[in-house]
Amino acid sequence: MKIIMLGAPGAGKGTQAKMIAEKCGIPHISTGDIFRANIKEGTELGKKAKGYMDKGELVPDELTCDLVMDRISHDDCKNGFILDGFPRTIPQAEALSAALEKAGQAMDYAIDIEIPDQNIIDRMGGRRACAVCGATYHLVNIPPKVEGHCDECGGPLILRDDDKPETVKNRLSVYHTQTQPLIEYYSKKGILSEVDGTMEMQAVFDAIIKAIGA
Ligand code: AP5
Ligand code: MG
Questions:
Q1: How far is Cα 4 from Cα 72, in angstroms, rounded to an integer?
Q2: What is the rounded average pLDDT for all residues in the chain?
Q3: pTM above 0.85, yes or no
Q4: How far is the CA of 84 from the centre of ligand 1 (A)?
Q5: What are the beta bridge partners of residue 113?
Q6: Which one of 10, 95, 146, 155 has the largest count of C-beta atoms within 10 Å of its C-beta?
Q7: Which ligand is nearest to the CA of 113?
Q8: Which of 48, 61, 117, 123 is the best mutation target for the ligand 1 pocket, counting ligand atoms within 8 Å of the beta carbon and taking the most?
């Protein structure tokens, strides 16, 4: 099963993608996580991506597309994968379609997690991410068992640089102009399902599982 997660920054794409990946036994591919890992390791890609990410801008398509095309060609993607944060522009969506078409394949589902901007602004301020393994929490909604420490690996929980309020506003505006058109794009392809992202986590998950028939 090949699934795309759509939705504004903070809609819950990462949270849900991780749960779906586990249930369906397919890899979770988050471009944001890949960029953050590269920044941490100080790679050339990380150095290039950091400037855009810190401002809440998109990393250019040419840096992003090759990375994803390479990742989905790996063996572990043979039975499907879940894309979280990609595609984010029409050219990225077209590059993805073209690459899959070459292999006689196509995406099966695009799940759009819908949530108003104000809910997002509230959520982002409370999000904390593990500096070691990247697991995410929310101070109020999904608190860690021990304050300030990751449940999975014990690493310190930090506020992502791009979760600062000014940057969140810019990310939302970039989302509305560059990414939201993908909702119509996948609706026309007949693979779009919309899910109410304001529900609690498990209810959002149940709605997605119903939409993909898993
Ligand atoms: P990326 O890492 O993809 O960030 P994003 O899309 O802005 O999304 P987030 O990770 O912030 O939110 P999410 O939807 O995953 O929400 P989460 O599950 O964490 O990208 C970062 C940057 O990288 C981009 O700005 C860009 O610069 C660059 N980039 C990445 N991909 C790119 C691409 N394809 N092209 C170009 N540039 C790219 O949830 C948010 C919070 O809410 C958490 O605290 C969570 O615990 C909580 N929460 C989740 N669900 C619920 C719920 N149902 N109820 C209550 N709280 C909830
Ligand atoms: Mg995410």
A1: 13
A2: 95
A3: yes
A4: 8
A5: 7, 195
A6: 10
A7: 1
A8: 123
